[in-house]
């Protein structure tokens, strides 16, 4: 029987105060769906962009949030590989995660390994799948390679650095302040460059004896693109997977010719489809988490009703990641 649940609803773009807890309908799961009682919802910069109106990808009024961890309560017709009681993580491109309960497609649900805290699993699921796809598929990293990880103290940046190090690479990381050097070192960086104080490309060439790096993993965008490009070795690969500082201005592709370099712009979704791929990638990530291979922590936990406070903390650049407890 359909019921109700509580969720954070945005009715108009604005500041953290537009995130209001409301009672919303909760349908029964239909064919191919599951009803999930959620336990932890991560707070990401994407959510802030949606709330502020910078991203107009959520029809309003709407419930923000792309991902969560929870326990399956019931399943719809035709669902065979997810059963009530399963603890699962998911990413849903259609939003709706800021809720105590919701219905999702069963194909999105990935089992969470035992021994991993719900909040940690939620906070690092999307970040971990992204980093794993970058170093294993977008540009497979192996022993003998040299890697540049821009923003190596950030969420995905830390995981890129650690995963590259685990695969045998020499890792050069960049950070924006001296306080973040220790974070990047802990994540596995062999060398750390303060990108606001040093010329990244010149410093990379100095560290590599003029060779450069095999791959630059860059989610910063406009502010770091030239440094990432200038740091490449012959046949190097600039992987541009985000634009935290803004979009890259148009540039002449012939500039890549001098080094036979390449630039790519990967997006996670093709790397976790079909469902079999999602399950294998998730299993690999959660196994690494359970082994303690990855630098995982939480910056804070907030009740669902305090989603606005979590957004304010993230916007103030307080150390994260943050999760909402449902």
**What's the SSE pattern?**
EEEHEEEEHEHEHEHEHEEHEHE
Number of strands: 15
Cα-to-Cα separation, first versus last residue: 22 Å
The largest sheet, given as strand count, sense and whether it forms a barrel, is:
7 strands, mixed
Explain the overall architecture.
The model has no long low-confidence stretch (mean pLDDT 95). It is globular and about 65 Å long. The strands form three sheets. Strands 3, 4, 5, 6, 7, 14 and 15 form a seven-stranded mixed β-sheet that branches. The protein has a six-stranded parallel β-sheet with strand order 10-9-8-11-12-13, with helices on both faces. Strands 1-2 form a two-stranded antiparallel ribbon. Helix content is 27%, strand content 26%. The two termini are 22 Å apart. It has two domains: 3-124 and 271-325, Quinone Oxidoreductase, Chain A, domain 1 (Alpha-Beta Complex), CATH 3.90.180.10; 142-264, 3-Layer(aba) Sandwich (Rossmann fold). The chain is an alpha/beta fold and 326 residues long. The protein contains eight helices and 15 strands. 45% of the residues are buried. Helix 2 (118-138) packs across helix 3 (155-166) and helix 2 crosses helix 7 (275-291).
């Amino acid at each position: 029987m359909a019921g109700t649940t509580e969720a954070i609803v945005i009715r108009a773009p604005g500041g953290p105060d537009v995130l209001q807890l409301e009672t919303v309908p909760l349908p029964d799961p239909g064919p191919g769906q599951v009803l999930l009682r959620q336990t932890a919802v991560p707070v990401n910069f994407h959510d802030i962009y949606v709330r502020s109106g910078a991203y107009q990808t959520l029809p309003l009024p709407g419930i923000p949030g792309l991902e969560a961890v929870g326990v399956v309560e019931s399943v719809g017709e035709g669902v065979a590989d997810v059963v009530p009681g399963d603890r699962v993580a998911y990413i849903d491109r259609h939003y709706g995660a800021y809720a105590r309960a919701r219905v999702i497609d069963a194909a999105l649900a990935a089992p969470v390994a035992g021994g991993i805290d719900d909040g940690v699993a939620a906070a690092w699921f999307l970040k971990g799948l992204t980093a794993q796809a970058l170093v294993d598929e977008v540009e497979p990293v192996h022993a003998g390679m040299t890697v540049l990880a821009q923003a190596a103290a950030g969420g995905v940046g830390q995981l890129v650095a650690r995963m590259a190090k685990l695969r045998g690479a020499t890792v050069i990381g960049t950070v924006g302040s001296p306080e973040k050097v220790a974070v990047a070192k802990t994540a596995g960086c062999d060398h750390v460059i303060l990108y606001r104080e040093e010329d990244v490309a010149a410093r990379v060439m100095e560290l590599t004896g003029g060779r450069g790096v095999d791959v630059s993993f860059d989610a910063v965008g406009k502010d770091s693109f030239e440094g990432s490009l200038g740091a490449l070795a012959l046949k190097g690969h600039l992987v541009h997977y985000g634009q935290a500082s803004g979009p890259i201005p148009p540039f002449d592709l012939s500039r890549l010719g001098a080094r036979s370099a390449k630039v790519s712009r990967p997006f996670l979704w093709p790397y976790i489809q079909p469902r079999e791929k999602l399950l294998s990638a998730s299993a690999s990530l959660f196994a690494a988490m359970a082994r303690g291979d990855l630098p995982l922590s939480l910056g804070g936990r907030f009740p669902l009703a305090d989603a606005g406070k979590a957004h304010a903390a993230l916007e103030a650049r307080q150390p994260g990641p943050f999760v909402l407890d449902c």
